[in-house]
Amino acid sequence: MAATAPDLTRRAAIRATRALQTANYWLIAKVTLGLLALLRRLPADSALAFLDRAARRIGPLAGRHRTALANLRAAYPDKTEDELQAIASDMWGNMARLAGEYVFLEKLIEEEDEHGLPARVEVVGADIFLDLRDNPAPRILFTAHLGNFELLPIIAAKYGLPVSALYRAPNNPYLAAALMEKREATMGDLIASRPGSVFALARVLEDGGHVGMLVDQKFIDGVPTTFFGRPCQSSPVLARLARQFDCEVHPTRCTRLPGNRFRIEIGEKVVLPRTDKGRIDIEAATQTINDVVEVWVREDPGQWMWFHRRWQIKTHGRKRGR
């Protein structure tokens, strides 16, 4: 059947929209990568300090700043507006430093101490890293968007503990390609978050490996949970994999310290709730993981990304009618 005039017009509009979006992505990537190339010419500490100061001025002008403040007010009803603004300012500084550290990551970790570890990173729980290395078994290491969370698989590898990390690529394909190249050079095995990624994680665990997961983002049609006492949707993937392989789950986090230094912490395994039949309870286990992350965020609220719409409830429900 020949296409009608409205069909041809609609297809042309779709092609034009996609072309404009591609051009927009290309332009944004060129500008961003160009600025990062200029930044690379500066000393690392000076450049990161500059980004921090700039973000604290520019961040409050962004629409996401209003989202951050709304989330902070709901999470901390007893704090004053000045206190909430200070947390939001710290958040923007942290996010800017995180972006800049992609440029300077090699420089930040190249200086090593007497144990061959990055001198700028202190490790809490080194004995656990060594125990996991010396007693191979499938395990899941989870973390949150705190400090520079990209350092976790790097430090684990320093202890001879390779971790296959699940990551979400940027929507911009040009930035995603550049970021992937940068990550692969330092972080090892990476698994892109897309349909089928759960099977890739399962294969790693089936082979007795370790996987790393970020667990503090919203998840459409996810498990109903709470975070800071507010309803939200959370990914059940960690709990399902832990139940399938009956494997240990360890909390790991990164805290940003003064002087462009970091603290990496790994804890003992988390005891996940189980059903009467002895299997891991998916919903209760997911809530347990949320509770661990909430403790972390409360300890360092300025290092978490409050502009994320963590409490937005969304579903893939079908629309009725046309």
What does the model show?
This protein has 322 residues and is an alpha/beta fold. It folds into two domains: 11-102, no CATH class; 117-303, no CATH class. It contains ten helices and nine strands. The strands form two sheets. The protein has a seven-stranded mixed beta sheet, sandwiched between helices. A two-stranded antiparallel sheet has the order 6-7. A hairpin with a 3-residue loop joins β8 (248-257) and β9. α2 (44-58) runs antiparallel to α4, α3 (63-75) crosses α4 (81-110) and α9 packs across α10. The longest helix has 35 residues, at 5-39. The model is unreliable at 318-322 (pLDDT under 50). GO terms for molecular function: acyltransferase activity. It is found in: Cell inner membrane. One of its GO terms (biological process) is glycolipid biosynthetic process. One of its GO terms (cellular component) is plasma membrane.
Summarize the main sheet: 7 strands, mixed
The structural domain count equals 2
The helix/strand class is alpha/beta
Number of helices, where a helix is a run of at least 4 consecutive DSSP H or I residues: 10
- In the predicted model, the low-confidence regions spanning at least 5 consecutive residues are 318-322
Report helical residue fraction: 40-55%
Mean of residue pLDDT values: 87
Kindly report how far apart the N and C termini lie.
22 Å
Number of strand elements: 9
Shape descriptor reads: globular
Pfam family, one: Lip_A_acyltrans
Main location: membrane
Subcellular location: Cell inner membrane
Organism: Nitratireductor arenosus
